[in-house]
Amino acid sequence: MTAERGKRLKVLAALISTGEFFTAKFWETTTAALFGGFLGLLLESVGRPLTVILDNASIHQAKAIQPLLALLKQKGLTLHFLPPDSPELNRVEKLWHKMKYEWMAFKARNAPTLEANVDKILGGFGSDYRMTFC
């Protein structure tokens, strides 16, 4: 999500089968290391065993995090990848679309306003903000 010239708010997210939403947000560039750390925190938070379904973004399969992924696999993490070029199967992408185009008013935003809007939606997901995947 973009705010101000050149500033982009990044949100990594996992939709849990219980209906919960696990997220991490930051203004830095998304790297494989950040993604690997996110998976580690997700595994600690949700518990084991854990299966994560991913798209084919390069950070999800980067060589740099293969040792970490192997360690997380030993701790109970299983990764399954969606077929290439199938965003319609990615529930998180559907969530981002709804968030950007339905739940947030389309207007010019500065960084603090954008972050506050995102925080409000992430905090209210499941109660104030709901979606179905039928």
UniProtKB/TrEMBL annotation:
It comes from the Bacteria. Gene3D superfamilies: Ribonuclease H-like superfamily/Ribonuclease H (3.30.420.10). Residues 3-110 form the Tc1-like transposase DDE domain. InterPro entries: RNaseH_sf (IPR036397), Tc1-like_DDE_dom (IPR038717). One of its GO terms (molecular function) is nucleic acid binding. It holds the Pfam family DDE_3. This is Mobile element protein.
